[in-house]
Structure formats: structure tokens, C-alpha cells
Amino acid sequence: MSPFTVHRINQLPVEALDLALPRTSDSLCRETERAQRLAEQAGPLSDALHAAVPLLEEAPHLRRAALDLRRRVHNGRPVHLHEEVLHGLCERLDATTGPALTQWLDKMHDLSALRARTDVLYGEETALATERLREALTEGVFAQGLAQANPQILTHLTTKPLEPHSKAARSVLGYVSRAAVKTSPFSRLTALALDGHHTDGAGHSYVDQQHVHAWLDALARDERFAAALQVEPNRSIRPVEGRPYLLTPSYGGPGASAWRTDSLVDGTRQGKLVEELASWPRMTIAEALGRIGGGDPFGGFLRLLDTGLLRLVLPWSPTDRRPLRAVVRGLEPLANPVAERTRALLSRLDEGAAGLHLLSGHDRVRTVERLAAAIHAAPEGDPRPGVRYAVYDDALSDLPLDLPAVPIHEDLTDLGRLIRPYIFRSHLYDWLRDEFVSRYGPGGHCPDLFGFLWAVAASPGFDGKLFRALQRDHAESGRPTDRAWLPVAAGSAPPTAAVLYQIAARSADDIRRGHHQLVVNQYNSGIGGLVARFRHCMDRSASDSAALTDRLRKWIADLFPDAVPHQVTLSADVNGMHREADGILPALHWPGEPSCAREGPRTTTAMLRHCPDTNTLEFTDPEGLALAPVYLGVVPQHLVPGVARLLLCLADPWVNGSRLCCTANPVDAVPAPVGEDMEPTPRKVRGRLVLGRRTWRFAPGLLPMAAKGEAPSAFFRRVHEWRVGHGLPDEVFLSVETSSWTPAAPSRGKPFWLSFRSPHAIWAAAHHVGRAKGAKAVRLAEAWPDRSGYWLRDGNGAHRAAEHVSLLRWERPSTERRPTGEVAAMDAKEGE
What we know:
- By secondary structure, the protein is α+β, with helices and mostly antiparallel strands.
- The chain contains 27 helices and 29 strands.
- A seven-stranded mixed β-sheet has the order 2-1-29-13-14-22-21. It has a five-stranded antiparallel β-sheet with strand order 20-23-26-24-25. A three-stranded antiparallel β-sheet has the order 8-4-9.
- A hairpin with a 2-residue loop joins strand 5 (238-240) and strand 6 (243-251).
- Helix 13 runs antiparallel to helix 14 (361-376).
- The protein is elongated and about 110 Å long.
- Residues 820-828 have low confidence and may be disordered.
């Protein structure tokens, strides 16, 4: 287990979600009890009234009253009878039915009065809950986070009504719940801490890297800046079967994800041009224009840039904390007025972003709006980026956290023993190895790792073979497998896991005594990519030896005792989270990644060879020393598109197929619920480990929706009756399942906090389900930890939700260390 743990601590206390209507809910519970008692009496009374109807033929008005009364008794609806009608009925009913009817009417009258009282309480308590929801907007740290996440809330919703059914209330509630109980780190909504370290709430703000790259692209397309920017030829070209193949980049436009997709293309049609460009050195755009020549050299340059045959050289280095400032430095030799205005503007954008973490929420919004307006206010004809101005902010928590080590270490050790038989070597690795052996023979050697990968990706049937390998991985998941013990070479990672978990306990002392549960939320790769993006923020609060960067380096070095780790970074030119993680290790340059100006042209010297003894593939440098490519990106490697995924699989070939966590795999297809059936799943517990929360799954149409014209209190009552009827807890997390899955649109949406005692949450959940496209199921998961299980307290004594990230690793399997049949059987039994 890693000697450090990273904590993600919510910035609002859990009490910020105290939006329940306790008196209203208690009144509803009393309503339910009385309605149940009335229902118990309704059957015999209804039968007695039915039997009495023929005896009332001579009194039509009493007969009509008896028929109406019977229907109302049967349906549990209030009855309004004139005193003389009631007296007339009781005279004609038998000695048992008359008193029973009077008693039932009295109880129904009491229930009706109670319901009227409930409606009054609903109005009073809903108004109070609405004010509490508005109060969250005044929390300073929450307002800072909102300024990053949704500035419109601060600027436009502070005076709008926040009644439960309103759009404004849904928006505010979504962010309050995110800041109170959902532990995904973003700005000041959820902050970070390193186990046992002093924390001061400090922040680190920086310009969105996608915006920085958009500026670089805009400047490169303006001939007035040609002398300040550099280009070089695309150096990803590799021969495949005598044809030149290269990676061409494509970037998402405004609103798209911050990612560069590298597509492998056949450059045969541009063969002579590709060959000529390959000989060009790094040079300024102005120098490139001289080489291009012709009647429109700049137009020719733009075409080369668009096709990816020429690549911009990044004016910053991997260690530059403020890349936009590096762009400004690169423009200093230019003396024309446009360049001077642009330098001044970029400096304002950079300085504004760097100081943003010190500002209040409203000041943040105003600052970002002012800087964005400055871009648009630039004179017509000045360069402008194609991506909006945005600033990111990583924040440390002001709440120190030190988990009691011994019991948590025991729990994670038990978890590691439990899931190990399910972590297996990918079939994708086997396929790549077989492709290598078919090309180079057993024990063969390839002098260029990327040349091999290009050849595989360009081969006929590549997509189908890749899909089949992934299908086999999916089929292998969910059960212990002998593939868990297949060997890998020294430069491939051993089995690892980043475990994201919460702890349900009443106090830290209870955890020390082992009176807690460790709730396993999900897994990720355990090499370190999940936390590497926060290293600069966390390093500021620790000495060098205790800093996160140094600890990650040591953790990674221990993963590869017989190889030299080198970092593979993808899309750092546009993805700020990947850029923040860059530079932890010496670089193994991905050929599609642009070079930096303050370093020489990047070369790739990784080689690949087959080890016949272990039937594995090993990375080496030119001297034959083992090399370990290490990916520390925040984007999971199974979501990385294109040929880069092949490299990442060879570097880390393990699939965690355990399914032993509270987050279902998004590619697991589950049939849609049938009819009105509710599909409950019990909590999965092993010792102190919670490997699955209680869940309830049902068709979307079963969730109550407000009817047109229905009173809000009546809708609240109907939801209460539905919840009680299905035995659901007060507080859950709701997610909507759709009929299809893609990396960009998972089959199950993010969990949505729902309290059945809060009208704000109920209306928001109903709207969330109602607008979901292609919904096939709704899934409710218990809130566990529940309110009593949030053990972490802040300085005011309020409860804080926290999620913890610990890294696990296991011994690298080898042919010599393969478990015996007895050990493997024990492991399999342990897994079961």
C-alpha cells in the first residue's frame, strides 16, 4: 500500500443539505399510520355497507348515501354526511356496523384534519428550507467554487425565487449537493489534503490550457507573428510496408473536451512532400514561408498546418507553471502595434488568472468577465482565440486529515487479497505480443517501438481485432481467472489499483477501534495518474521529501525495480490536468506530442523485444537497458483513443475485473426492468468492507411525477406514500440508465443526491429523470455513509464528507512465481 493517502474533502458541511421538512415528514408518518388503521377497518365496513344496500330500497337517499359511502370507505377518501343521513343509516344498520361506521367517520375526520395540518406545515417548512438553500450562496468558499463552476448562479440567481419547482432551485441544489456530499474535486467545491500534512486552504489558479493553445493557434495563423513562433515537421512518420504513416492531430472546437486526437494516416499521396518536410529543421514560421515560396506562401503554410505535416513548437516548457506568460515572452522581439497590444492583453489574462484564487466568488466572476470582455474589445483584425477564456483552480482543504493507519491498512490489505484473483492481463496485450512475434519472430527485436505500433494499427482488420480483444476482456471480468497470474516484463507495470473509498464511522476513535466500515466506491490505475495532477498544489504544503511529487517518484520507482521509468504524456498542449502532471519523470516522448521551444527537438529511442522465456514484450533503450513507459494522465487509459492506447496497454496491461465495488461497470449491459417490479439489491459486506451499497432499480415511469395542477403538498404526500410503500430510505443517490454507452455518454449518469424529505430534492430528481433521453431504468443507491457515518468534523463541529485515495500494488507475476493450483484455488475461493 502507498505510504501516502490523498483525501478529497467536501468544502460545505453535510449540514448544508439540511433541507428536509421534519415536522411535515413526521405528520406524514402519522397520516400513514392512521390511513393504515382505517384501511384495516375498511374491508369489513365496506362489505357490511354492501350487504345493507338492498335493505334501503324504500329510502333512495339513504341508499345513494350508502353506495357513495361504500366507495369512499373502500378508497379511503373523506366523507361529508349530513347529520340526519348518518342518523338514518345508523338506525337501519345492524348493531355492529352502525358504531363501526361512526368510528370510521370520526377517524377519517381526524385524518382529514391532520392532512390539512400537514399542508400548513409543508408551506411553513418549505419556506424555511428555501431560505436555507439561499444561505448556501453566502458561504465564501462555496461562492468561490461557483464562480468557477457556474458563474451565472452568482450573478443572476441570488435574487431569484428558489421554490422547489423552479429551475433556479435545481441549479443551486445541484452545486450545494456537489459541494457537500459528492467528492469529485473541482475548484473550491471539493478540496484536497495529503495524509497527515498541514493544510491551509491555499489555491492554485491558472488559465485553461485549451484557451492557451487556442491563442497559440490564432497567433500562428496571423502572418504578423510569423517571426516569433516556431514550427517543425511532423516527426511521427514511420514506414509501414514501404508506405509513410504519420499521426495527424485534431482538436475539438469550442465546447469540446480538452483533448487532441492523433489519427494514424497513410501519407503516400503526399510522399514527396512528406519526404522533403522531414529534412527541415526547426525554424520560425517566417523562415518556413521562405522555404514554401510560391504565390501564396502563407496559404501554403496554413494548409501544411491544417494537415498536420507542420507542427507548432510550443513556446513553453513542461516545467513552466504559467504557459501563457511563456507565449508573451516569445512575442517580445516583435515591435509592431498589434504585437504590443496582444502582449499586454495576454499578460492581463495571465496575471488575472494567477491571482484569481485569492478573490471572493463575486470578484472572481467580475474579473473573469472583465478579462473575457477585454479579448472581445480588441481592435478588429487583432488575433483572437477560438475558445472562451476560462480559469481553473485547485484548492487545498483547510481541514487536516490523518486517517488512523492500522485498521485502514488492515482493511485495504483484506481488499487487496480479495480482488487480486480478478486482476488479469489483458487480451489486448496477448494480441500485440502475437503480432510482434509474427513480425519479428520469437526473441525478436524491433529498433523502433512506435514503428511496430504504427504497423499494427495500419494492418488490415485492426479495428475488428481490437474489438475482439476487448470483448474477451469483458467476458473474463467478474470472476477469478488464471490470467491473473500471467507474467509481464520488467518495463510493464505490475498489477496496481487506486482505491477510492469512504469510511462510515461515528468518530475517529471508532475507526481506531475498528468500529467502522470501509466503503469501496471504485478503482482506477494505481500507478499514480489519479493524483498526479494535484502535485503542484500539494507540494507547496510540504518539504521536498514529503511532497507528493517526491512520493510519487518513489512509488513509481518501487513499481519498476528492474527498469527505468519514463513518463508518457498525452494532450498536454490542450489538457491542463495532463500538463500539471507532466515532468514528474524523464520523458518518453509520444510522437504526436508537440515539442517545446526551450528544449531540443524531441527524439524517440524506445525499442521493443520479445522475451521467449516469459513470452512477454520488453521495452528497452538503445543500450538494451529496460525502460518503463509510465502514463500519469487523468483520462483513464481505456478511454484514450487511437494508437496511443496500444502503447498504454503494453505499459500497463492489467484489467481490474473484480466488480467488487459500489460503482457498476458502465459497459455491463443489464436488461431494462419489467412492468412495475422494483429490483432491490442488498448491501454487499465482507468483514468491514462494503463492496456494494443497497440499490433499487425500476422503470423510469414508476417514479412519481407532479400532475398538472396538483398542489405541491399533495405531490410531496404522494412521493412519501410511494417511498414508504417500497421501503426506501429517506436519502439516496439517483442515477438514470440509458440504452446505449459511449465514452462521451456513459450508460449511467452521475449520481444525483435525493432526499425524499426535501421537496427541493424531489422536484429536482423528477425533472432530472423526466428530461433524460433514452432512459431505460432509474437506480437508487443508499447514501452510505449516511448522516450518522460522516465522522470527519470541521472547526465548527459540522460533519464533512470525504473520499480517500490509496494506491495498491502486488508482486509482478512471472513464470517462476506463478501460484500453485492450491494457492490459486484458495484465491478463487477468497474471491467468491
